[in-house]
């Protein structure tokens, strides 16, 4: 079986979206992809003011999209990361998706 490259997958997805998605859905997908890249961004300056501001921006965008998509889990994870001095319930470690 042949496995397509990431470039091929992006191309096929783009063509599929052009044909079958409304302009509103394509716009939503672009916004979500941008937020997803931010969430998955590898952090080198964790704990700095710059990182906190970055997380606040991600949180704002997640909350803006939350009316259309159910992003409550993602919002909660970013809030835990961005507010380290906030009292947490049970003081549990971060979920794996919030560590990268």
Describe the structure.
This protein is mainly alpha-helical. It is 64% helix and 0% strand. The protein has helices at residues 6-20, 23-39, 49-65, 72-82, 96-99. The chain starts with 5 loop residues before the first helix and ends with a helix. 5% of the residues are buried. Mean pLDDT is 83; it is low at 87-92.
Beta-strand percent range: under 5%
Catalogue the unreliable spans.
87-92
State the distance separating the first and last CA atoms: 32 Å
Helix content: 55-70%
Topology order in helix (H) and strand (E) letters: HHHHH
Per the principal axes of the C-alpha atoms, what is the gross shape? globular
Quantity of strands, as a count: 0
Radius of gyration: 17 Å
Q: Mean of the pLDDT scores? A: 83
Q: Which class best fits the helix and strand makeup?
A: mainly alpha
